[in-house]
């Protein structure tokens, strides 16, 4: 205990000598504060819901372990700090295999950096590879699709209102992006799950597989019975999110597509 | 409006009727159509930055040796992803890779890598991969069967455009795709691994051997 304490003191002394080290440790503290521990729970992905009464003997749910999640999507400010530290991910250096040609295209200054008016808006025009690299650089990871969807459902606290909010957003043409935290957090204390941007997940390239299927490589989910399982209008919103993810490739970017990071609860 | 309509049309495959009424959804796809032609357009000037060798995760081969993808450099490579507990799709994938191998002369086959990566880091230990190789009479030193971390598997699958999901039974739902890389690790050709006709893959490979 004593030695740990003295290590801490010497680290403090050392870092006060080095400006950059001070900056990094301060940033680390903010990062911890910016994450929220989402408790374990379960939810029912829309594709496991059944309309058909003969099939509804049991409603399948998906269990999710507790995990840390960024309270907000990653902002231009934070992504700029990452790019400064990891020049491989600067828009003039990024490897072609990791992105399409629109990477960070909203960063229009000659140095290829973020517009100062946009710093607290979510970063967009980032590929899955760039998003994953950002999270890895913070010792984090992208959330799984299950974790993301579970967080969105918010333990069914106010489903009706949430669905309205989502549908309202899906049905209006794109406007200027607002800054993060413009609207109240959900019940978990997480901001901007709905109504701001689409978000990458670690396993966006997943099949929406029912748990009992195997080896079939079922590609007919949207054309056949799978899509009919969606039980009511509110599930169209979920259907659209899953369809959207399904349509992505890792090097794609979009002007409404950003991300946030997660971490195991341990 | 016309431009918007074009964007929306790109969604036809998945959400044809929905996209029309939900512009926010369609908006994200504004430039994705350009990717359709990427594979067939060789871009020599940018070969290195196009290469899957830019992925630096570690893999462990059936013989226990650790390597990175760039170890496949210098020769064209036939790549597939499988898992050994898979009953139907994966053995068939192996059979079709062997069909490609048999379409080459002995001299040609010696100038090609055959790399098979597992989806299943838990069960496909190097010992299990060795057993699988034996079962399928894979003895040539040109072949490598490998396992890596969950993150490495996901990154490789995303790069190769392969969708997969682990289901509750521990099995995997997955695309079966055979990819042909050139000697710099650039994807030159991809085909459905279930197709017994491997002429396309074989031709793509032979073109790289000239």
SSE arrangement:
The complex is a heterodimer of chains A (about 270) and B (about 210).
Chain A: H1 2-17, H2 19-33, E1 35-38, E2 41-43, E3 62-64, E4 67-70, H3 76-85, H4 128-137, H5 145-153, H6 159-170, E5 198-199, H7 225-228, H8 234-247, E6 257-258, E7 262-264
Parallel strand pairs in A: 5-6
Antiparallel strand pairs in A: 1-4, 2-3, 4-7
Chain B: H1 2-9, H2 12-21, H3 23-27, E1 59-61, E2 66-67, E3 77-82, H4 89-102, H5 106-109, E4 113-118, H6 126-135, E5 143-148, H7 150-160, E6 164-166, E7 172-174, E8 177-181, E9 187-192, H8 199-209
Parallel strand pairs in B: 3-4, 4-5
Antiparallel strand pairs in B: 1-2, 1-5, 3-8, 6-7, 8-9
Low-confidence stretches of chain A: 1-31, 51-57, 210-230
Q: Might you state the CATH topology name of the largest domain in chain B?
A: Glutaredoxin
Shape of chain A: globular
User: Helix/strand/pairing class of chain B, anyone?
Assistant: alpha+beta
N- to C-terminal separation of chain B?
A: 49 Å
Q: Most extensive interface: pair and counts? A: A-B, 51 and 48 residues
CATH homologous superfamily title of chain A: paralog of FGE (formylglycine-generating enzyme)
Strand percentage of chain A, roughly? 5-15%
CATH architecture level-2 label of chain A: Alpha-Beta Complex
Total number of β-strand segments of chain A? 7
User: So how many helices of chain B?
Assistant: 8
Counting copies of identical and different chains, the oligomeric state is heterodimer
The order of strands across the largest sheet of chain A is: 1-4-7
The CATH superfamily name of the largest domain in chain B is Glutaredoxin
Strand order across the largest sheet of chain B: 2-1-5-4-3-8-9
First and last CA, distance of chain A: 23 Å
């Amino acid at each position: 205990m004593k030695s740990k304490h003295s290590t801490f003191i010497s680290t403090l002394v050392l870092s006060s000598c080095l400006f950059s080290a001070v900056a990094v440790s301060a940033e680390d503290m903010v990062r911890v504060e910016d994450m929220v521990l989402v408790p374990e729970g379960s939810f029912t992905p829309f594709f496991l819901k059944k309309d058909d009464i003969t099939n509804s003997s049991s409603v399948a749910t998906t269990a999710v372990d507790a995990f840390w999640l960024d309270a907000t999507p990653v902002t231009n400010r934070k992504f700029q700090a990452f790019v400064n530290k990891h020049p491989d991910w600067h828009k003039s250096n990024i490897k072609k295999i990791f992105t399409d040609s629109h990477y960070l295209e909203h960063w229009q200054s000659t140095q290829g950096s973020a517009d100062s008016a946009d710093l607290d808006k979510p970063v967009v025009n980032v590929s899955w590879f760039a998003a994953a690299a950002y999270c890895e650089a913070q010792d984090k990871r992208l959330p799984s699709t299950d974790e993301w969807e579970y967080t969105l459902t918010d333990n069914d606290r106010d489903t009706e209102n949430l669905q309205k909010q989502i549908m309202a957003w899906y049905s209006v043409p794109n406007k200027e992006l607002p800054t993060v935290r413009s609207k109240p957090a959900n019940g978990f204390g997480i901001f901007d799950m709905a109504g701001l941007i689409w978000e990458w997940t670690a396993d966006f390239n997943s099949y929406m597989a029912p748990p009992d299927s195997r080896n079939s490589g079922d590609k007919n989910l949207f054309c056949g019975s799978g899509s009919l399982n969606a039980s009511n209008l509110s599930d169209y919103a979920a259907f659209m999110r899953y369809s959207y993810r399904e349509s992505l490739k890792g090097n794609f970017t979009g002007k409404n597509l950003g991300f946030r990071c997660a971490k195991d609860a341990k | 409006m016309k431009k918007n309509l074009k964007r929306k049309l790109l969604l036809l495959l998945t959400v044809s009727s929905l996209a029309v009424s939900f512009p926010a959804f369609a908006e994200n796809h504004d430039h994705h159509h350009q990717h359709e032609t990427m594979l067939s357009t060789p871009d020599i000037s940018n070969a290195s930055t196009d290469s899957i060798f830019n992925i630096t995760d570690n893999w462990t081969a059936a013989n226990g040796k650790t390597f990175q993808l760039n170890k496949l450099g210098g020769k064209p490579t036939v790549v597939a992803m499988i898992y050994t507990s898979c009953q139907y799709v994966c053995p068939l994938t192996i059979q079709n890779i062997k069909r490609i191998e048999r379409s080459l002369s002995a001299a040609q086959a010696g100038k090609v890598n055959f790399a098979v990566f597992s989806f299943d880091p838990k069960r496909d230990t190097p010992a299990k991969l060795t057993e699988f190789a034996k079962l399928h009479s894979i003895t040539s030193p040109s072949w490598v069967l490998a396992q890596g971390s969950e993150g490495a598997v996901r990154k490789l699958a995303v790069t190769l455009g392969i969708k997969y999901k682990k289901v509750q039974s521990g099995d995997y739902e997955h695309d079966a795709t055979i990819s042909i890389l050139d000697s710099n690790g650039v994807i030159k050709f991809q085909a459905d691994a279930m197709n017994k006709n491997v002429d396309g893959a074989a031709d793509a490979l032979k073109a790289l051997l000239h």
